[in-house]
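Our preliminary data section would be incomplete without showing what the modeling component actually yields. Below, a chain of 105 amino acids is followed by its predicted structure, encoded as tokens that our downstream tools consume directly.
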Amino acid sequence: MDFIYQLAGISRGEEAIAVHFHNEEGDLTFNSASPNVTAKVGIDHTIFGEDFAFLKSVVADATSKITIPSPSVVHFRGRPSAIDRSVYLDDEEFWQDLAGAFVTS
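Predicted structure:
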């Protein structure tokens, strides 16, 4: 979520939601804050650029990679009620802005 919360227009909400995982070691549940969309979504700075530059500088024998969450994380963790409808009257504009922020990042 540290990537998501750096997108313009998305902030950490007060509501905690339960997130469930299952793997070979068993079940894991933790609470995560839901993202709130309070302004037009976009990107106004490079996210993880300095982190990646550092990683690349210290990894000599492998390909340096970072991962980011998919745009659907905003939907599944935030749910439609997390979108301020005075900012986005319809979902299509929201998804276009969100996808655009990921393409730009």
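The longest helix spans residues 91-104. Helices lie at 49-58, 72-78, 91-104. Preliminary results of this kind motivate Aim 1 of the renewal.
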